[in-house]
Amino acid sequence: MKKDAAAYVKKCDKCQRHAPIPHMPSKTLNPITSLWPFAQWGMDIVGHLPIAAVQMKFLFVATDYFSKWVEAETYASIKDKDVTKFVWKNIICRFRIPQSIIADNGQQFDSIVFQNFCSKLKIQNFYSTPRYPQSNGQIEATNKTLLIVLKKILDQAKGK
């Protein structure tokens, strides 16, 4: 079965075009783990996406570090109030108040509005190293997978 799958992937044009190029890490990786489900989330904004009829240009993505559960939503523009609303609606109301959030240094995550929101709920904010997205590797890996899947789906939609 493994040989059949490998043969199929070698013949699949879409699989070849959109497959990630494997890279070996230059140093030993130090994993960031969570002790229980939905206690620690990684967040990021992916954009600019190809504009569709509904003008959604950005994808807001959150990944739970324990279960690898993904929450994602599209936006035309993303402001700090959108991030706060997303965390409330998609994480707190559905799962629980997280212990911590790991995000990049984007203005939406580093704003006073978002910091006050997290402070009131006793959520710790951690920020990845500037210009080094690998330090928030879980969300970056999720983003890479989501973009590959979106490209394949959009490629199929163009052909119809």
UniProtKB/TrEMBL annotation:
One GO term in the molecular function aspect is: nucleic acid binding
**What InterPro entries would the database entry show?**
Integrase_cat-core, Retrovirus_Pol_polyprotein, RNaseH-like_sf, RNaseH_sf
> Which Gene3D superfamilies does this UniProt record tie to the protein?
Ribonuclease H-like superfamily/Ribonuclease H
* TM regions (residue ranges): none
Entries under SUPFAM superfamilies matching the protein: Ribonuclease H-like (SSF53098)
Q: Which domain of life is it from?
A: Eukaryota
Domain named Integrase catalytic: which ranges? 33-160
Biological process terms from the Gene Ontology for this record are: DNA integration
Name any one Pfam family assigned in the record: rve
> By what name is this protein known?
Pol polyprotein
